[in-house]
Write a structure and sequence with these properties.
By secondary structure, the chain is α+β, with helices and mostly antiparallel strands. Helices cover 24% and strands 39% of the residues.
Amino acid sequence: ELFRAVDERLVCEIEHQLGTGEVREYRIEPWGFVLHKGRLLLVAGKVLEAVKTRERRFYNVDGLRRLNVVAGPATPPPARATEYDRIFRDSFGIWLSEAPQKSKVHLRARKALAALLQQRSMHWTQREDPREGEWLDVHFDVVICPEFRAWVRSMIPDVQVVSPESLRDELRAEVAEWLRSPDPETDCSGDV
């Protein structure tokens, strides 16, 4: 049904599960598919009834929980909506957007993480500057999106955020909150 909806550009209502597990309903005009970072994405115009327009969105096909065709052929997408080289240029991981402003990010990595970042480019703007000792400075010009935050967070304690200060402060606050948590599943004050 999904492939027919894309092929015939049929207006659909979908239920889509987000990465958080939350399921949301959308009215969409499917435009096509793109394979990005190993994930098949449905490219569609999310119908915004209040303003009578469509907003381009990418839906992970694995997250589709329900699809119902509700109307006949939709209007074709705007030409810029399917210029994938331009759209994906500044993506990080599976997250992408043309709207937010990029930031200059300076990270300091050590141990196995430093070696990994010297071997593998995580973003086309990545630049490494070795330091004396076990640390490596890594620079990005990137949108600080949820995917980038999660990636940096996953490297703690072998990463330090040098700049921007706002990202460093945000991550410090998250770690402090986690350490203060009374939840026995996350409380690290007792015996392991």
